[in-house]
Amino acid sequence: MVSSSNNTGIQVTEFLMICFPGMQDTQHWLSIILAPLLVLALTANFVLLFTIHQEASLHEPMYYLLAILSVLDVILCLTVIPKVLLIFWFNMKPISFVGCFLQMFIMNTFLPMESSTFLVMAYDRYVAICHPLRYPSIITEQFVINAAIFIVARNFLATLPTPVLAARLNYCASNVVENCICANISVAKLSCGDIRLNKLYQFVSVWCLLGSDLVLILLSYCFILRVVMCQQSGGAVTKALSTCGSHLILILFFYTLLLVFIFTNKAGKKIPSEVPILLNVLHHLIPPALNPIVYGVRTQEIKQGIIKLFKH
Hints:
It is a multi-pass membrane protein. Pfam families: 7tm_4 (PF13853). GO terms for molecular function: G protein-coupled receptor activity; olfactory receptor activity. The chain has helices at about 30-55, 60-90, 95-130, 135-140, 140-160, 160-165, 185-190, 195-230, 235-265, 275-285, 285-295, 300-310; strands at about 5, 10, 15, 95, 175. It is mainly alpha-helical. The chain has a single domain (about 5-310), classed as Rhodopsin 7-helix transmembrane proteins (Rhopdopsin 7-helix transmembrane proteins), CATH 1.20.1070.10. A hairpin with a 2-residue loop joins strand 1 and strand 2 (about 10). The longest helix is centred in the C-terminal third of the chain and has 35 residues, at about 195-230. Mean pLDDT is about 85; it is low at about 1-10.
């Protein structure tokens, strides 16, 4: 434990991440699952990004939104998973005070950014299916730029107080974080101060950001489903349902995994502490691994672009 002394006593200057408190001797075996998933997630997202960059036919708003999603996935993966693997493989538990709160900021900001990107992509599908004639005039490159500004500004401003409130607490005792990552409450509860405001702000911000996104996404797909079911062409209905269905399943998986993590965390001692920790880690890994596969491979134009890329 690295510390310094002042008038208030011992001050924590770094934290120790012990990951799974009850699995210290066996937790390294989890790397057998996490490492391949990390390689898959990074490879799939970089292939998707490179394909969109290289293939001129993919320089359209819909594919730019996919590229934004891939960039967010890569950042989330690299922010969390490499440190977890270093802990498992080399017992590199220490993380600096600044590094911990930087990780907390990125996690708390980029996860809602991904949620907002899902919302914009749902709106893109809504316009494409419900208002196809107006699609070229509504979903433009300027629309993507405005959407990107909205995604960054909204979530940056809404989530910035979370790490700021946690960093301002007085850490004067234990520096052992019983988690694999610098989650807000896992770190804040080590302080000597009152953390009720931290808990309240995180609860309100998460439900306002992710909750509103999920409601609007579900509304979009309800409108899409209503229009699709009214179409006379069986082939068009099947194609629309197949594409939107796979997208909706992936989106629901993203939110379901997050909700399960929140509720298991609230359950406290009723559920082993390892469960919410594992869910938190997987939430930064499984969606990034699945997103480029479901959104990319199931999109014919991207599939052809990837085939052409590998042929060259």
